[in-house]
């Protein structure tokens, strides 16, 4: 503000910041101490033994490693799919003239309000008829299809600031619409395409509902995590490790790219004005 | 092709004589209008196909299925509005509607309210509070399912739960089964869900406060305004756009909530934490009442649409 910043904001924020990471600290502590020690509370310090036994045992008890690979493949494919198809569509909607353009655009960008629960039953029946249950396509198609609502909006929003003189100049020089897209518009809108990719990556990595219903044998991490429950035996230590393994990649991506994420979230909902 | 283009350029003639350079624009526009179709459809084809399968078809089919009684693999029976009548006379579903309302409004008020206030507090010392903001943002980057597991360590029913142990300091032997007691389950679920939700409003409102011109603050302080007055009369009104966006995103997220409920309570105890988003999953995917579940989905869809009408109007106006 003006002059030296006061001290009280830091104190208030520090209090909230430390309260906020208590659940995270708790799960880390539970994962690196023996269950006997943490079962009366992970914060107790009367005795403190560091052990990686839960980290070793969980890989044998649950298929975490294959699930990690599955999650990575699914998230990568869905992210690449969205990043390839979205800019083409956003370019077509923004720079090209064709019938039903406005109507299609309105339908697609407003679909972002649809809860994903809407797709569950019809797609479940469709995949069952097509024999696609347990096929990666069963989740990849809705992942990518549902993402267009916000991804096209985000990239098209970015294109609104794109100098149209450049596009017109390339057209006058004889470039067709596809050449203009490939050589002029796409290389200059990569930042918005990457912002879209980050959002899609986080969303797909963390997805629980669709893979839980449509996949059977190769399931991603959140589904495995939901299966690691200790109804008959206490296994909070194993749960903790599985939770950390599930969230470490998206959390790292989120912390590294949080600026783009914030910018994306802002433009995504039309707060640009 | 040429025959159709020629008359149009002639038509454009009178207008273009007044503005030099306009003719070129009109020519270009004419050419764009006819030559763009194939390219546009080519670029859009994969998007339209995937969007059709993943959004348009399920949307129409859910509404269609909601009029049928479907039991397993037997032939679906048309029941008209029967599913809806059953829904609204089912006391469990009426309770679900109330739970959804409480859950949605409370998580939104808690996370947006706290995020908004913390954004303004940190705006008084942006650099010094950065690490603490990151600590709060971090919770937003954690998936709902994982967040659920993190909260189990705090909400455990014995004195191994942090919350019970903390209360136990003042009231020895205190043991409340937070997630197992129908009176408290919904409220601790709301707190756990809001924990992750504070990051976004904090981020958005902090960005809007940062965007306020510094001169405005300088003028206010020179006129003798206190921090409280600056917060009330400058920061709060000028960060309202960020608040509006955050409220909207939070409401939509809470209405469709599933993951955290699935992990923490599974809708229980005695269905006290079942929202519409969870109810439809239970009815259709665990009880296999697909038509009944579809009707619940349509109710959820209507609720979502009511919430999002202002945003839809805003977006539609922007679709040029």
Principal-axes shape call of chain A: globular
**Average pLDDT figure of chain B:** 85
Q: Supply the number of helical segments of chain B.
A: 16
Residue stretches of chain A low in confidence (pLDDT < 50, at least 5 long) are: 267-273
Secondary structure: helix percent of chain A: over 70%
The dominant shape of chain B is flat
**Largest interface pair:** A-B, 108 and 116 residues
Query: C-alpha Rg of chain B, in Å?
Result: 27 Å
Reading the helices and strands of chain B in chain order gives: HHHEEHHHHHHHHHHHHH
Biggest sheet descriptor of chain A? none
Could you give the distance between the termini of chain A? 25 Å
Structural class of chain B: mainly alpha
Largest sheet properties of chain B:
2 strands, antiparallel
Specify Rg of chain A, calculated over alpha carbons.
Answer: 24 Å
Summarize the helices and strands and which ones pair or pack.
The complex is a heterodimer of chains A (273) and B (320).
Chain A: H1 8-20, H2 22-32, H3 35-38, H4 53-61, H5 64-95, H6 101-110, H7 117-130, H8 137-159, H9 164-172, H10 177-188, H11 190-206, H12 209-214, H13 221-227, H14 236-256, H15 258-268
Helix pairs in contact in A: 2-14, 4-14, 5-8, 5-11, 8-11, 9-10, 11-14, 11-15, 13-14
Chain B: H1 2-18, H2 22-35, H3 37-65, E1 68-69, E2 77-78, H4 82-89, H5 91-123, H6 130-140, H7 144-155, H8 162-168, H9 182-197, H10 199-210, H11 214-222, H12 227-238, H13 240-255, H14 259-264, H15 276-286, H16 290-318
Antiparallel strand pairs in B: 1-2
List keywords for this structure.
heterodimer; A: 273 residues; mainly alpha; 73% helix; 0% strand; disordered C terminus; B: 320 residues; two-stranded antiparallel sheet; 16 helices
What is this structure, in a nutshell?
The complex is a heterodimer of chains A (273) and B (320). Chain A is an all-alpha fold and 273 residues long. Helix content of chain A is 73%, strand content 0%.
